[in-house]
Write a structure and sequence with these properties.
Blueprint: H1 2-108, H2 118-123, H3 129-144, H4 148-161, H5 168-181, H6 185-198, H7 205-218, H8 222-235, H9 240-250
Helix pairs in contact: 3-4, 4-5, 5-6, 5-7, 6-7, 7-8, 8-9
Amino acid sequence: MRRLTLVCLMAAAWAATPAHAGLFDDEEARRQIADLKAKSDARADQQAKSILDLANQNQRLAEEVANLRGLLETLIHKQEVGDKRAQDFYLDLDTRLRKFEAPAAAGGAGAPAEGAPAAQQAATPAADPAREGPDYEAALNFFKAAKYKEAAVAFSAFMQKYPGGQLAPNAQYWLGNAWYAQRDCKKAIEAQTVVTTKYADSPKAPDAWMAIATCQQEMGNAAAAKRSLETVLAKYPNTPAADAAKQRLKK
């Protein structure tokens, strides 16, 4: 009987062991699931925070871009207004200067140089003021209408037709401005250099030097621009261009 009782107790203990093991396995699984859920929730919270931070950064960047765009538009508008005022000023100045130059041109137009060979006098046709003036005005009207490409073509044709005309320095100067208005500083400098060399005594020469300095500055050659401004002060000290050069050199 004792042996039978012992066998029964051992069998019962053996039967209870899997149940206990199963209970332990369930608790461990639940614990692991809870840990995984906690970690998943933490990652979700972190991701949500990162997304929120990114959204805030995007919002700030958008606001900064909008502010910069507004500032750029304001600067462009001011530049356009400044260019228009400068253009109107030089056009008005050009008109005033031509009124003073006209009497001198009338007195010397068509007159051969004293002592020049007869063959040279015959080979050099006198400029026709009756045609020169309208052709110049036609080219200048293109510039006034902001048709800068057409203005460049017209002034180039004028210079080929009237290289020794009374209005040639003016036409060459506005040819340079027409190229500058098209943002072609290289051709603008080339055109204005003709004014500063071939027509160095013209009232347009100091303005041509100023235009060259502007192009050099925009091309990133500050040293060359400084030399051009200093040339204006040295060669044309008592001109409006010299006053403008002084102000620019101070900056």
